[in-house]
Amino acid sequence: MMNKVIKKIGFLFALLALFSLAACGGGEKDASSADDSFPEKDITGVIQWGEGGATDIISRSLASIAEDELGASLIMQNKTGATGAIGAQYVYDQSADGYTLLFGAENPNLYQLLGISERDYVNDFVPVSIIGQSYAGIVVNKDSEFDTLEDLVAFAKDNPGKLNMGTSGTGGLPHVASAMLKSELETEFNLIPYDGDGPLAVALLGKEIDVTVLAVSAAQEYVDSGDFKMLAVLNNSSLDSIPDIPPITDIYSQFDAYLPWGPFQGIFAHKDTPEEVVQKLSDAFETAQNDEAFIEKLTSLGVDPLNLHGKEAEDFVKANRSTSTWMLYEAGETDVSPEDLGIPKIGEE
Fold first, then answer.
1. Which InterPro entries has this protein been placed in (predicted)?
2. Predicted confidence (pLDDT) per residue in 46-96, tens digit
3. How far is residue 148's CA from residue 140's CA, in Å, rounded to a whole number?
């Protein structure tokens, strides 16, 4: 009798072990198939800047094409504030499953240096795609008394703080550009913050500000319509989209040390997103960016299409971070050395 009981107990333990193994195997299969079936629902795209700006225009144009490649809808929303840090933090706080993506610009590369946020691209996100490198232009209203950059600089030097320059906040493109001007030309502007290129363009149209620095992609339509005058592009050569606008180095050669440099647009996922999901996203956006109409759109906006993924994208982000952080530090805009944050100078990695 006792032997029969022992045999039954042994059989029950063996059965339980079999069920446990089946459950474990089933779990692994489910996890794998979850990656294989991605995406199974809509994907949220968070644009860290306001409507009508360069990042917004480029992100929405690409999203509508990428939906076909992904087989899912991209629900785009703008989350602005704190030089884009609100949107970046929001994406970081969501599940690392690929269903919430950050459509951002270069700004997170400066967050730690300027004390804006503890987040940054290199440590907290993984690039899905670097879409393109754009350029910036110094713009004034069509009715401005300034017709050349030399006129603007002369007035700003003789009247420190009198001209209102619109910015997108600390670490934004106009702020970095104003630091370059101050360092090399001893100009001083009264900086007034707005939430991105779109609101900056509206402010300049309404003459709330005297001057600003916009991505060419955001300023192009206003220049073409005659509403804005672009005094120079922040580059060391002219741009095909606006060939009549002089590069700043043609006027002030000392800026050659900073250039080429400019804003970029990219798509980022949480750093812990599964590699298979990141690869699926990258493949879809890579194909979408090969769309001829999208390439023409970028080119018309003065953006160089890049379509970078994987290590190339990571290296690009790191190089931009090194250039931007050291530029601001050497211009005296921050007491924090990039070296203290483990950021090397270009060529000293």
1. BUG, Bug_dom1
2. 999 989 888 999 999 999 999 999 999 999 999 999 989 999 999 999 999
3. 10
Listed residues 202, 227, 257: the one ending a domain? 257
pLDDT digits over 32-54, tens only?
445 678 999 999 999 999 898 88
| Edge-to-edge strand ranges of the sheet holding 228-233 | 190-193, 164-167, 211-215, 136-141, 228-233
Q: How many CB atoms lie within 10 A of CB 307?
A: 19
Helix axis angle, 54-70 relative to 216-225, nearest 10°?
110
Label the pairing between strands 74-78 and 43-47: parallel
Residue that is written with structure tokens 């785009």 in the block: 76
Distance separating alpha carbons of residues 31 and 47, to the nearest angstrom: 29
CA distance 302 to 336: 33
Q: How many CB atoms lie within 10 A of CB 314?
A: 16
Which residues lie below 8 Å from residue 268, measured CB to CB, with a gap of 6+?
91, 101, 102, 104, 121, 125, 126, 127, 128
Domain-embedded: residue 20 = no
* Alpha-helical runs (H) found in 71-187: 85-93, 111-114, 121-124, 149-158, 173-185
